[in-house]
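Q: What residues go here?
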């Protein structure tokens, strides 16, 4: 990756919060995408310990390595405490400009006459904004978004194309809604007049009944509250509450294709990876990390600073600070013990058969 301008290694060190070892005045104009494919003109970022062992075969002008690595390099390099944070600062320096609509309202946009749009906001082509909606300063709404009535959107928000925001939704400041995300659709809630299949099975009734028992939609009169500095990934959905509001706490980042059901409350500064599903009224604490492809049961309560590993099924409440995984999710240490025991089953079964045979032989002798 070529930098817009040549900069010194010392400048990059200052930018990344690291310390230079060697010549800080050498000029850098390229950053390698991968150490294995670098050239003698590149700056190489070595974040994976396995690459440290291969540095003798890596061609580079200079390196960035974690301060925790042993300093065995004979070329200029920068030592940083947090490599990913250093990478963030470097990428912010070189990122290309995005193409956003100009400030003001595009002539093709359809804006209800009661809506209040800050003059510094940018409303792109074919945007629809409903009655009594308020759009804050410096907010950018890109083409083909639909925003309902009585919506409140704070300042400096970025709403990408094809986002849909339902009536009465409240969105804070500095919020990013990625392409195709949906906020404020009705939740998935139905009821039958007579006992449903689920109700019957839970009571132990397994008889079949061909009689019609239609599902009646439960109205959703709550809404959605998204606090400051939240990001919602592409094609993710946040359903409105049945009675109260569905809430996403400040600083939480949600990846693509995540389903947040009605009345879910997600705390502050959480990281939620893609393909996760939250059952209705689940409660998630602060600084929770949920890896990809997990499912959380309705009404489950997850404590603060919990980590849930990928492809887990959370069926029960989780206490503060735990690391859990598996289906159903259990404490990781306990799960590893269970896995170790499972691996021993063939050996245990073989021993069991031998013991059973010996007992049978002893019984035969006693008779």
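A:
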């Amino acid at each position: 990756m070529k930098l817009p301008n040549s900069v010194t290694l010392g400048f990059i060190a200052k930018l990344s919060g690291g310390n230079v070892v060697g010549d800080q005045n050498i000029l850098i104009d390229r950053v390698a995408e991968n150490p294995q494919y670098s050239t003698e003109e590149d700056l190489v970022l070595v974040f994976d310990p396995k690459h440290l062992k291969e540095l003798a075969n890596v061609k580079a002008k200079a390196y960035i390595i974690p301060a925790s690595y042993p300093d065995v390099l004979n070329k200029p390099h920068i030592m940083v405490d947090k490599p990913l944070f250093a990478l963030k600062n470097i990428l912010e320096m070189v990122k290309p400009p995005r193409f956003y609509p100009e400030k003001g309202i595009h002539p093709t946009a359809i804006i209800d006459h009661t809506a209040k749009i800050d003059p510094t906001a940018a409303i792109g082509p074919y945007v629809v904004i409903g009655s009594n909606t308020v759009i804050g300063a410096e907010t950018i709404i890109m083409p083909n978004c639909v925003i309902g009535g009585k919506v409140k959107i704070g300042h400096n928000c970025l709403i990408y194309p094809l986002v849909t925001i339902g009536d009465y939704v409240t969105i804070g400041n500095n919020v990013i809604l990625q392409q195709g995300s949906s906020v404020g659709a009705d939740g998935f809630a139905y009821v039958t007049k007579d006992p449903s299949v689920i109700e019957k099975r839970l009571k132990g009734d397994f008889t079949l009944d061909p009689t019609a028992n239609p599902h009646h939609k439960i109205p959703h009169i709550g809404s959605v509250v998204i606090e400051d500095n939240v990001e919602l990934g592409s094609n993710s959905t946040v359903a409105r509450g049945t009675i109260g509001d569905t809430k996403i706490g400040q600083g939480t980042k949600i990846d693509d294709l995540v389903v947040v059901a009605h009345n879910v409350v997600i705390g502050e500064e959480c990281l939620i990876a893609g393909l996760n599903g939250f059952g209705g009224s689940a409660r998630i604490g602060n600084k929770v990390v949920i890896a990809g492809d997990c499912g959380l049961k309705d009404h489950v309560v997850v404590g603060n600073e919990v980590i849930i590993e990928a492809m887990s099924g959370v069926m029960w409440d989780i206490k503060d600070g735990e690391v859990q995984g598996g289906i159903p999710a259990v404490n990781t240490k306990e799960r590893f013990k269970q896995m170790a025991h499972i691996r021993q089953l063939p050996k245990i079964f073989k021993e069991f058969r031998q013991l059973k045979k010996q007992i049978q032989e002893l019984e035969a002798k006693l008779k």
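A: Context that may help when evaluating the design: The chain has a mean pLDDT of 93. DSSP finds five helices and 39 strands in the chain.
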